[in-house]
Write a structure and sequence with these properties.
Elements (H helix, E strand, L loop, with lengths): L8 H9 L8 H11 L4 E6 L7 E4 H17 L7 E4 L5 H13 L2 E4 L6 H11 L3 E5 L1 E2 L2 E2 H8 L8 E5 L7 H6 L9 H8 L6 E7 L7 E6 H15 L6 E4 L6 H14 L2 E5 L4 H11 L3 E5 H13 L9 E5 L5 H11 L2 E8 L3 E5 L6 H6 L3 E2 L3 E6 L12 E7 L21 E9 L5 E6 L4 E3 L2 E3 L1 H9 L4 E11 L3 E10 L7 H10 L10 E4 L13 H11 L2
Parallel strand pairs: 1-12, 3-4, 3-5, 5-8, 11-12, 11-13, 13-14, 14-15, 25-26
Antiparallel strand pairs: 1-2, 6-7, 9-10, 15-16, 16-17, 18-19, 19-20, 20-21, 22-23, 24-25
Helix pairs in contact: 3-4, 9-10, 11-12, 12-13
């Protein structure tokens, strides 16, 4: 695979000069852990339905990662080939990512919620060579899905199944086979070593284009975000990081998968969110830090308030993805005894802003933080000129952790001549440099931290024989931030119900989280004189529906 990255030499030189890009790749950090803290616990993995977690020391984990890396190479994975996975927060996910780093392959994580439609597109667009799935997770047969779509994916050479059987078994092929006796590991790893400016991660994000966009990141762009993030939050080798947010999201990938290894710390993974079990895990493992979207914070607060678990070890809960209601921060602080930190970021750049541990309440309650070192933010008006403090405008950002382009779509890069990235969000920045996200110019809905591809779902609904017109907007929700509300104009003489909508969309094999959760039948959609739907008017209606 040839990646059309947008990475001019001037940016590389500037980032190196400023000390943000250190030139290290993931395997370099793992090498340090294996050499300096070999007997320390690297990872503790909790799986639903299994009472005893799996535990790996850094020495043992490095050993299995090396074997998996050699196995992937033995299966024909070359440098810059894409290895896709659709995995829960299991140890195999982390191992696969570091194995890809060792042989110069590109990891492409996919959310477990995706189904045939999304997965077929993503694998085909990335020209993925290997696809790793669980045999079953949360009652869904991923092996059957993967095999059903394989005939439509000529570039896909192999499907590997965790807990699988026979020649497709991940364990049999990669873990149990002594690949180190078949290949010269030292030579292969040296020849395949990634450069810190090579694409190492391909992560799809939903936006306004109707199809997912493949965000390309390098080791330099990702690690340059994690270092200042850790410094601001005073995280170090003694921390124990719980990650229940999916590692197929940038949140889980950067701060649950990468960050613990970079810190020589311990990662604790939870594959299915259960707040009561999370509280018990925090008590049992003495967890000190976690990061997730606001609904996770609300759930954990309720669990800690109602149960006997000791969660006093938790120092920090960083919440991102949606504004944190002040009353929740107050409840969480009391129930958890932790610092509640607000943050804002994107798949394209990781966490861009966070509040600080020492910030006064008004900053934590009413802002999304200030820019991390290495990143800048500004708010501009329609003329693209920077607005004074306190005025709402389009939020832009630039700096060390900005991505290096969208796969095969360089025209969507959305950077100006001064390298400012158009986030598509509306915001205000106060006199102290703290930002508050006030809305989105992008036509997306964020439900519990998950982006809903509005245009794609509208397009599918428009195909229904009873639908004349459709528009989907966000409806406020106290727990999830937003839910999707579909406004539909039926064709003359036709009827269209909520059950009709759900049944039709389920036939399209989309993720269930993408299904609108309310249907409003209307005679017409509000439009401009040119015919464009005035979604702001529909959002006003949806606000009243969500109350």
């Amino acid at each position: 695979m040839q990646f059309d990255t947008i990475l001019p030499p001037s940016r590389i030189a500037a980032m190196k000069k400023q000390g943000h890009w250190r030139g290290l790749v993931l395997s370099d950090y793992l090498d340090k852990c294996a050499a300096e803290v070999p007997n320390k616990t690297a990872l503790v993995g909790f799986r639903e339905g299994i009472s005893t977690p799996v535990r790996w020391t850094y020495a043992d984990f490095d050993g299995v990662i090396r074997r998996i890396a050699l196995g992937l190479a033995g299966l024909g994975v070359q440098k810059n080939d894409v290895v896709s996975c659709q995995l829960p927060n299991w140890w195999q996910f982390t191992a696969l990512v570091f194995a890809c780093s060792r042989i110069g392959a590109v990891i492409n994580p996919m959310m477990p919620i995706f189904r045939e439609r999304e997965v077929t597109f993503m694998l085909g667009f990335a020209e993925s060579k290997i696809f790793v799935v669980p045999r079953e997770f949360r009652g869904f047969d991923y092996e059957a899905m993967a095999k059903s779509i394989r005939p439509n994916l000529p570039k896909l050479q192999r499907i590997l199944v965790i807990d699988g059987e026979g020649e497709d078994s991940f364990e049999r092929v990669l873990v149990d086979t002594p690949w180190e006796t078949k290949q010269d590991a030292k030579r292969l790893f040296s020849e395949r070593r990634q450069d810190a400016n090579d694409v190492m991660e391909l992560l799809y994000t939903s936006g306004t284009t109707g199809e997912p966009k493949g965000v390309m990141h390098t080791a330099n762009t990702l690690t340059s975000n994690i270092h200042p993030y850790c410094e601001r939050l005073r995280l170090g080798a003694d921390d124990i990081v719980l990650m229940a947010s999916p590692m197929a999201h940038q949140t889980g990938f950067m701060y649950g998968l990468m960050m613990p290894v970079m810190l020589k710390a311990t990662a604790v993974l939870q594959d299915v969110w259960d707040p009561k079990r999370a509280a018990k895990i925090i008590e049992q493992e003495r967890v000190t830090f976690t990061m997730a979207s606001t609904p996770f914070l609300s759930d954990l607060t309720d669990a800690a308030s109602s149960g006997p678990c000791d969660v006093s070890s938790l120092r920090i809960f960083l919440a991102a993805g949606a504004p944190i209601p002040r009353v929740l921060v107050e409840r969480a602080t009391k129930a958890l005894g932790a610092n509640i930190v607000s943050a804002w970021g994107m798949t394209e750049n990781g966490a861009v802003t966070t509040t600080k541990l020492e910030d006064p309440e008004e900053k934590t309650f009413f802002t999304d933080g200030c820019a991390l070192p290495g990143m800048e933010i500004c708010v501009v008006g329609p003329d693209n000129k920077t607005l004074p403090a306190g005025q709402e405008g389009l939020l832009k950002t630039r700096g060390c952790s900005n991505f290096v382009g969208y796969l095969k779509r360089p025209q969507l890069y959305a950077h100006d001549a001064d390298d400012w990235f158009d986030t598509g969000d509306l915001a205000k920045i106060d006199a102290d440099g703290y930002v508050r996200i006030t809305g989105r110019a992008k036509d997306i809905i964020i439900r519990g931290g998950e982006n809903i591809p509005v245009i794609e779902i509208e397009g599918l609904l428009f195909r229904h024989p009873a639908v004349q017109a459709v528009a989907i907007v966000g409806m406020p929700d106290q727990r999830l931030g937003e839910r999707a509300c579909a406004f539909v104009v039926p064709k003359a003489g036709q009827s269209f119900s909520f059950d009709d909508m759900v049944a039709f969309l389920e036939l399209q094999k989309i993720a269930k989280q993408y299904l609108p959760e309310r249907l409003e039948i209307v005679q017409d959609l509000p439009r401009t004189p040119s015919g464009k739907v005035q979604k702001f008017k529909l959002r006003d209606v949806a606000k009243t529906l969500g109350q």
